[in-house]
Amino acid sequence: MFGKKEADRILNLIKTKKSDYWMRVREKQMLALFHKAADGVPAYKDFLKKNGVEPDKVKTLKDFQLVPPMSKKNYLRQYDLKDLCYGGTLRQALVFTSTSGSTGEPFYFPRNEQLDWQSSIYHELFLRNNSRQNLGQTLVIVGFGMGVWIGGLITFKAFENVAKRGYPISIITPGINKSEIFHALKTLSPNFTETILVGYPPFVKDLIDEAEDNGVNLKKINLRILNAAESYSEKFRDYVVSKSGIKNVYLDMVNIYGTADLGTMAFETPTTIFTRRILSKNITAFNNIFSQITKTPTLAQYNPMFTSFEEESGSILLTGDNSIPLVRYTIGDNGGVMSYKELDSRLHKSGIDLADGLKKQGLESFSNQLPVVYVYERTDLSTKLYGAIIYPEHVREALQDSRFESFLTGKFTMLTRYDDDQNQFLEINVELKPGIKAKKSLEKLCCDTIVKNLLNKNAEYKNNHNSLADEVTPRIIFWPYGNDTYFKSGVKQKWVKNTS
Fold first, then answer.
1. Which of 362, 378, 394 is the last residue of a domain?
2. Cα–Cα distance between 73 and 47 in angstroms, integer?
3. Domain residues for 392?
């Protein structure tokens, strides 16, 4: 089931099948998994019974969309771990990974080799989407944490699976150890045709910024980058591409949408990166695609043979198989879904010819018609200031201004605090680059730039600012590079801290 022949079959389908085919696969997969879970998972049987759902009556996509969504709160934490698994048992070969616990107590997800193999299909597609005709020897440097979290281990297993299918891949797993990564870039990378650096976006940016000081000339390495765990702007991509000497902005820096819950679920492709870059410069088209949201979402394609997505009231639901199957699962992300055909149609209404644009960029042979999911900040990752919801995306965009490139890493943590008189204020803790000292002029520029972006992007903030300018002006606190209070190296950056 998990061999080279099956991988080649699926990758050929991705390359050749049209939008309507994938939407039929999506419907078939969701219904099939619902019935498989309803028949074989004790917890899901009980969940459906308690919610008055008769599985035999769920026959169409319309029926399926009436099935109550599950979540950690109403499902995963309500049953014993074994009863969430097929057959009500843990007596199988499993690997456990933990959620980050950003919304509360961490949850431990078991997975089997199926998810590792599915992830390898996405990783092989990244390898194939290469401007070099013949893929040479490739070094993969895994810079995700290698502990209980999923990123490092599933990336290692995915590339290992690809290597077993005949690709000339070598892997090293330094995790978040910067000195080991720099040593690998200096001593190992020159022996390979290309190097793939994998890691969290802020961590990879740190590596790019510090490479020269650590004796690494990135522009002599054929570098490609694979990110996951959070979204970033096209300004961020442009910065990393320019600073690192990456050859092709559409092919060589890709973001993955994945979770501990179901592994690698969707991925950026040349098609979605091209689309996102067009939309970042065209507000009308942006609104036609993303329905008036102001945050820049990750735009990705997914293989419905593995995982499928729905949108319900602006929230993302996913359905995918694992040791714990998840059916209409609320993951806590906002966003939407559409077929490739729908994406193409919405772009066309804005005067954008997707096929022609891809052809002009030389991306026609790298495109596919898998369905699309777009995802932005988790519903629990924001803070409030005088009733206005403040999203980290708007602060992040401001700090990516080119004027800060020599002074700030781009990382920050924001939180709502109260002074001694119980007046509410927004505190933004900002990390300085190595050797940079805080100055009042930099503080003012930082504050002014953040306020300007909030006024442009956040209507609630703008309304408050009109009458409460001083009260809603953020307070900036600079921290030395790598300070453990907010900027522990290599782990997921906490853009928002909850003080409640």
1. 378
2. 12
3. 383-479
